[in-house]
Design goal:
CATH topology: Growth Hormone, Chain: A
Strand content: under 5%
GO molecular function, one term: transmembrane transporter activity
Helix content: over 70%
Subcellular location: Membrane
Number of helices: 20
Order of helices and strands: HHHHHHHHHHHHHHHHHHHH
CATH architecture: Up-down Bundle
Keywords: Membrane, Transmembrane, Transmembrane helix
Structural class: mainly alpha
Membrane topology: Multi-pass membrane protein
Number of strands: 0
Radius of gyration: 20 Å
CATH superfamily: MFS general substrate transporter like domains
Protein name: Major facilitator superfamily (MFS) profile domain-containing protein
Oligomer: single chain
Shape: globular
């Protein structure tokens, strides 16, 4: 089941960044402008707003049927993109279907871990599931420039999406437990009320999501970000690839550190500091391809490495709130902030004369310092006790 989930997230990631490293080619093919082409990337981020609340509901009903329908709709969306040819609005419709499913199932890694793994073993599957999307993005960024035509690229995506759908039909099976049960058997309404009243948890989610939002922005506009530095589409694809691969290793390592040390504070500080160093290094060397590959890899290691670690932190902080709700909120805020960050970072060079990576560094430093100051041992314990007391007081049973 973990492999099937990873396959869905991998293909979603690869399709999300289809045009991120070949923006000029997409502009020519669809006879449009960069702002319209950017909608292909931004649609995945925007769709998190309606899909995140729905995700928390449908995963409570059935993980099996949520995933089954998701695979089918993804395959339909992929073929619509291919059949649309140069009709950009029909192509965008197919892309939106896949983006909706990607947003709907992002939180599934935490739900899956609860369904099929013991509590002490959940860190690794959460890390694997949450980073599988990054590997898809890495593949998508690096492979797109090598296709001679966009139709052949879209056909390939349609084929492997259909294969994923068939594999899921053949090999998926239902779990024996309710994915969102907890000790108090709280209703969805009461879990949302708990979340709303837990200000410390909301603050943690915001800062963790903000770092992830910067990472999403940088990779989603990778070619436009680096074009002014003389980087080609193929080179931009490889730089984005290195960022996602770095993020995958960073995410897996963060979970291993948690398993070994049974501690979240030190790994979070390590990744926060590394994120600032990574973005700063990349900004200094962005005009050189090989140095940019190294800088983006460190950036991805830090910013994306926080993702599975952050998901575990927010789940662990308040266990009375289902995994689907807190995980969805992390992704919702991250992708919402990514939409906000996108155009200021794109036009930073044109308006202010310096690379958008420097603006990203300013944002990263502010966010990571705030996260380090917020997440400390004394505040964690005191606020966790408050959360438990609040949950008991609000228990409808």
């Amino acid at each position: 089941m973990l492999l099937l989930y990873c396959y869905l997230q991998w293909l979603g990631g690869s399709i999300w960044v289809t045009y991120a490293s070949i923006t000029d080619k997409a502009i020519s093919y669809y006879s449009t402008n960069a702002n319209i082409v950017n909608l292909f990337t931004l649609s995945f981020l925007i769709l998190q707003f309606p899909m995140a609340p729905l995700s928390s509901i449908v995963f409570r009903k059935s993980y099996y049927w949520t995933m089954m329908i998701s695979f089918i709709i993804s395959a339909i969306g992929a073929w619509i993109r291919y059949i649309a040819e140069k009709n950009i609005f029909l192509a965008l419709l197919g892309h939106v279907l896949i983006g909706a499913i990607n947003s709907l199932t992002l939180s599934g890694c935490a739900v899956l871990a609860k369904l099929w793994f013991d509590e002490k073993d959940r860190s690794i599957p959460i890390a694997i599931g949450s980073t599988s999307n990054l590997l898809g993005c890495a593949y998508g960024l690096v492979i797109s420039p090598y296709y001679s035509s966009i139709p052949s690229l879209l056909l390939t995506q349609s084929i492997y999406t259909t294969l994923a759908c068939l594999f899921n039909i053949l090999f998926s099976h239902k779990a024996l437990i309710n994915p969102c049960s907890n000790n108090l058997s709280l209703t969805y309404k009461f879990e949302l009320e708990l979340l709303y009243k837990d200000k410390y948890l909301l603050l943690l989610i915001f800062f963790i999501s903000s770092g992830l939002g910067i990472a999403y922005t940088l990779t989603g506009i990778i070619y436009q970000l680096l074009e002014s530095s003389g980087i080609s589409e193929i080179q931009a694809g490889w730089i984005g690839f290195s960022m996602y691969v770095g993020g995958t290793f960073g995410g897996l390592l963060s979970s291993v550190l948690v398993v070994k040390t049974k501690n979240y504070v030190k790994p979070l500080r390590f990744y926060s500091i590394l994120s600032m160093i990574g973005v700063g290094t990349w900004a200094f060397v962005s005009s050189d391809f090989f140095s940019g590959v190294v800088g983006s890899a460190f950036t991805g290691f830090g910013l994306f490495g926080i993702m599975p670690l952050g998901i575990e932190i927010v789940i662990e902080h308040n266990k009375f709130i289902s995994e689907a709700i807190t995980t969805n909120l992390v992704y919702l805020i991250a992708q919402g902030l990514s939409v906000i960050f996108t155009y200021p970072i794109i036009y930073c060079h044109e308006l202010l004369g310096f690379s958008g990576l420097w603006l990203s560094l300013i944002l990263c430093v502010f966010i990571m310092i705030a996260l380090i100051l917020t997440y400390n041992t004394s505040d964690i314990e005191s606020n966790r006790e408050l959360s438990q007391s609040l949950a008991l007081n609000l228990n409808p049973n």
